[in-house]
Write a structure and sequence with these properties.
- This protein is α/β, with parallel strands linked by helices.
- The chain has two domains: about 250 residues, Aldehyde Dehydrogenase, Chain A, domain 1, CATH 3.40.605.10; about 190 residues, Aldehyde Dehydrogenase, Chain A, domain 2 (3-Layer(aba) Sandwich), CATH 3.40.309.
- Helix content is about 40%, strand content about 20%.
- It has 15 helices and 22 strands.
- The protein has a seven-stranded mixed sheet, with helices on both faces. It has a six-stranded mixed sheet with strand order 7-6-5-8-9-21, with helices on both faces. The chain has a three-stranded antiparallel sheet with strand order 3-4-22, with no helix packed on it.
- β6, α7 and β7 form a beta-alpha-beta unit.
- α2 crosses α8.
- The structure holds nicotinamide-adenine-dinucleotide.
Length: about 500
């Protein structure tokens, strides 16, 4: 049976919250024309950003590169102090940043505050890591040398970020680059560039040299990457976005033999075993599915639920999803904001229709909402056939697609039957089962009895076609460092 939520009214934006966001935008000193940035909840244009051409991008490379020479010579303590000051400013501006994120990206204000905390945490983490540069010492086995290993900044880094976490995706690249001693040129997505512009402005106020971090906004991302990734001054590219674009950038990076970090697409399996705690599994599912409206690379994408618990889980999840208040991120009480654009809404419609046509049961949602903005109802599909598109593609929206399984082996095999390997989730109250299954899932990130595994101290990243390299943790700093060794000759003097 199809249960739609079409008649439920959307939560309107709150005028004072919109005013707050717009005051922050007014303070950014944006150009009067250029690329328009809109609010996905209303379609209203909220500002313009410069459309920087190739010459402008190469000038940014030159400027950052020149500033990088001095920065590379700063001491770890100097870099840490600046990062601590940036962290303090990000925290002090939590409300400004959260309102800005909610306005340009659409997520509910409460979630936007969560992103500010998460995004700022990377800056604090790398302030702390900056003063503990790894290095080592070993003796050559033949006794003829002592080997000293050191870390040097990798050089000028090009950072390309997606629209879904406009603060956190930027800080988790800029902060380790700064901590390692690197200059950077960051290209945010045109859908949500304002938060990055503001965060970099705060970095400068905190003491990051004016020219060291350059923000380049452009309507032609391929022209940008073609030019800057071929520039010999650039030594590193760090990209977060789709696997398809990641492949293109890796080909370009090959010509210049760039150090490359690729945080790419996901298709996360979410496994619920009969011995799971039902409430915990539903809570975890809501978080893993609806955080950021499902527009997260680690969003639960394929729910595999064991037969004994499947009915209760599907009904429980649908009941909770049905109760979610949908509306503007800057509305009071909003639980789910708009999708980023109309194309995403049409994709949700197509995925739902295809699944239902193939025999899936629509438990709730499945419909566009409102007349302005890009809203789609929280949706639960049960008994989804394995070859329905929703069960194979990265959904990037608020649709929970449930399939059922009998045995642990079957669940693991189906979960691993994808070229992606970013995140996976396991729910079981048996420690042995949870850990055994987690060991067998081929992903870089595992949420065990929990739906939000991300943490600034953890090495976020994927296996298979979900990417290369890690962000966060000590590992995230290494992405911006080259290992060097000094071979100190030893000989007998007696
Ligand atoms: P996207 O690949 O379309 O765009 C990401 C960024 O790359 C944007 O800034 C875009 O302008 C830029 N871009 C696009 N083509 C380019 C080119 N040829 N050269 C240079 N830059 C180019 O992805 P999106 O739609 O913004 O984000 C969604 C995707 O990102 C999803 O697949 C999601 O899984 C992935 N993602 C991954 C992670 C992760 O950490 N693994 C995090 C967030 C999002």
């Amino acid at each position: 049976m199809s249960i739609t939520t079409e008649t439920i009214p959307l939560i309107e934006p709150d005028a004072s919250a919109v005013g707050h966001a717009d005051r922050v935008i007014a303070g950014l000193g944006l150009p009067v024309d250029g690329i328009a940035v809109d609010d996905p909840a209303t379609g209203e244009v909220i500002g313009h950003i410069a459309d920087i051409d190739v010459e402008g991008a190469l000038l940014a490379v030159e400027t950052a590169d020149a500033a990088g020479e001095d920065w590379a010579r700063t001491t770890p303590r100097q870099r840490a102090d600046v990062l601590h000051a940036w962290y303090a400013l990000l925290v002090a501006h939590t409300e400004d940043l959260a309102h800005l994120i909610a306005r340009e990206m659409g997520k509910p204000l409460a979630e936007a505050r969560g992103e500010v905390k998460y995004g700022a945490d990377f800056v604090r983490w790398y302030a702390e890591e900056a003063v503990r540069p790894a290095g080592g010492f070993r003796e050559a086995p033949d006794g003829g040398a002592s080997i000293l290993t050191r870390r040097a900044p990798v050089g000028l880094a090009v950072l390309i970020t997606p629209w879904n976490f406009p603060l956190a995706m930027a800080t988790r690249k800029i902060a380790p680059a700064l901590a390692a001693g690197c200059a950077s040129v960051i290209k945010p997505a045109t859908a949500t560039p304002l938060t990055t512009i503001f965060a970099v402005e705060l970095a400068r106020r905190a003491g990051v040299p004016q020219d060291l971090v350059q923000v380049v906004t452009t309507s032609s991302s391929s022209t940008f990457s073609d030019a800057v990734l071929r520039d010999r001054r650039v030594r590193k590219v760090s990209f977060t976005g789709s696997t398809e674009v990641g492949r293109t950038l890796m080909r370009l990076a090959a010509d210049n033999v760039l150090r490359s970090s690729m945080e790419l697409g996901g298709n996360a399996p979410f496994l619920v075993f009969d011995d799971a705690d039902l409430d915990r599994a539903i809570e975890g599912a809501l978080a893993a599915k609806l955080r950021n409206g499902g527009q997260s690379c680690i969003a639960a994408n394929r729910f595999y639920v064991q037969e004994g618990i499947a009915d209760a889980f599907a009904e429980g999840l649908a009941a909770r999803m049905r109760d979610i208040a949908v509306g503007a991120g800057l509305g009071t009480g909003t639980g789910l904001g708009p999708l980023i654009d109309g194309r995403a809404v049409r994709q949700m419609r197509a995925l739902t229709d295809d699944a239902v046509a193939q025999g899936a049961t629509l438990l709730t949602g499945g419909t566009e909402l409102g007349s302005a903005g890009h809203f789609f109802a929280p949706t639960v599909l049960d008994h989804v056939p394995t070859d329905a598109e929703v069960a194979t593609t990265e959904i990037f929206g608020p649709i929970a697609a449930i399939q059922r399984f009998r045995t642990e082996d079957e669940a693991v095999a189906r979960a691993n039957a994808t070229e992606f390997g970013l995140a996976g989730y396991v729910f079981s109250e048996s420690l042995d089962r949870a850990l055994n299954v987690a060991d067998r899932l081929n992903t870089g990130i595992l949420g065990i009895n929990q739906g939000v595994p991300s943490n600034a101290s953890a090495p976020f990243g994927g296996v298979k076609q979900s990417g290369l390299g890690r962000e966060g943790g000590a590992e995230g700093l290494e992405e911006y460092q080259s290992v060097r060794f000094y071979n100190i000759a030893r000989r007998e003097t007696r």
